[in-house]
Amino acid sequence: MPVPIQHPVDILRLNTCGSVDDGKSTLIGRLLYDSRSLMEDQIEALERSADLTGGGRIDLSTLTDGLRAEREQGITIDVAYRYFATPRRRFIIADTPGHVQYTRNMVTGASAANLAIVLVDARQGVTEQSRRHTCIASLLRIPHLIIAVNKMDLVDWSEERFIEIRDEFEGFLPRLDVKDVQFIPLSALTGDNVVEPSNHTPWYPGPTLLGHLESVHIGSDWNLNGLRFPVQWVNRPNRPTDPELHDFRGFSGQIAGGIVRVGQKVMALPSGQVSTVKQIWTYDGPLQEAFCPQSITLMLEHDIDISRGDMIIGPDNLPGASADLRARVCWMHSRPLQRGRKYLLRHTTRTVQAVIADIEDRIDMATLEPVPDPAEMALNDIGEVRLRTSGPLVFDGYSTNRLTGSFILIEPGTNATVGAGMLFPPTEVVKPEYSDFAI
């Protein structure tokens, strides 16, 4: 009797990265094809293309041909997203380009990922781009990392070659503070160790790629210590004929950290006003409690002044507040980052003016060592900067909370996103004026 398929409840967000032609597109296609996550017409089109090209082998990379077509046309390359599900979990894959000049797109795709897959061509070994993407995954605090040694069929499934690549990675991984790493030998082209175990690797006792994706623990990836609720919108339905919505005034947004419950005492920053949670609303109805990263609307007991860009917090694990910031920045624009330049800084739901006070170092991707006091930061450079904003930000260190510890820099004239930043932990925390959280 077949086992009924249970509705998957959690979502794993992952991104694939690596050098050009390491097999990212083929790997994604293999995952979709072997997990039976394609529509029938897609499968038929793949099989027809195999007959046309001869040899009878399906070209799985055609599932992401749209991205390659963009590259050939010379237009902007964006991150491509793919979705599939198994009985155990749902997946969102961010397919990021491999070219060095598109490293900024890797940052975009990895910014919300729980897991990163770094592909390495078994013939080429570890390249500068492999180190670059692994370094970025570490800087973005992606909790889980898979080093997928691809094209093992082209090196005769050599265990020695796999160990050589693994040892080279393990030589620099301790400097990147990466804790959960899984090395998997595979062939995306033939499907070995992607969804089904391979008979060619009796020396490899670990899981397949899909098996690891289904079982990796992600429940503790979100920060549930200390409520962080950036207000995105003041929700006033303005329906005088509806008795339930006549005086409704709620605050909508996505929980960026912690848990909120009905009856909980909260504080609104930067004003310091305090109140109690009266109701928690979602699209599906009211809740007694909600947690990160749910999108909700809060109603408070008291009619206090809160607007977009403010943050509602709990009494424990208070955030920092400062206008002088230290951050690690990935520069994404052809015009270099220089001292004294002014930008708009968008942090959670708040936008302020910012000036680059100093550039303290830049990471040399060949050695992963910092180069102190550079004159500027060029496209795809990563380095440490100091910023001064027009008003204090309420934030956490990126290592503590990826949502309240990150920001983007925007060029005022063009409205182009020119940089992505990760804040260092604050030196001082918020000091509530009302220590007893009572009005």
Brief descriptors of the model:
439 residues; alpha+beta; Rossmann fold; Elongation Factor Tu (Ef-tu), domain 3; 3 domains; eight-stranded antiparallel beta sheet; six-stranded mixed beta sheet; 23 strands; disordered N terminus; disordered C terminus
What would you say this structure looks like, in words?
- With 439 residues, this protein is of the alpha+beta class.
- The chain folds into 3 domains: 11-215, P-loop containing nucleotide triphosphate hydrolases (Rossmann fold, 3-Layer(aba) Sandwich), CATH 3.40.50.300; 228-313, Translation factors (Elongation Factor Tu (Ef-tu), domain 3, Beta Barrel), CATH 2.40.30.10; 320-423, Elongation Factor Tu (Ef-tu), domain 3, CATH 2.40.30.10.
- It contains 7 helices and 23 strands.
- It has helices at 24-34, 40-53, 65-73, 103-110, 128-139, 159-172, 209-215; strands spanning 11-18, 80-85, 90-95, 115-121, 144-150, 180-185, 228-230, 233-235, 250-254, 259-261, 265-269, 273-282, 285-287, 289-291, 295-300, 311-313, 320-331, 342-347, 350-364, 369-372, 382-395, 406-410, 417-423.
- Strands 7, 8, 9, 11, 12, 13, 15 and 16 form an 8-stranded antiparallel beta sheet that branches. Strands 2-3-1-4-5-6 form a 6-stranded mixed beta sheet, with helices on both faces.
- Strand 5, helix 6 and strand 6 form a beta-alpha-beta unit.
- Helix 4 (103-110) runs parallel beside helix 5.
- The radius of gyration is 24 Å and the shape is globular.
- The model is unreliable at 1-8, 69-77 and 434-439 (pLDDT under 50).
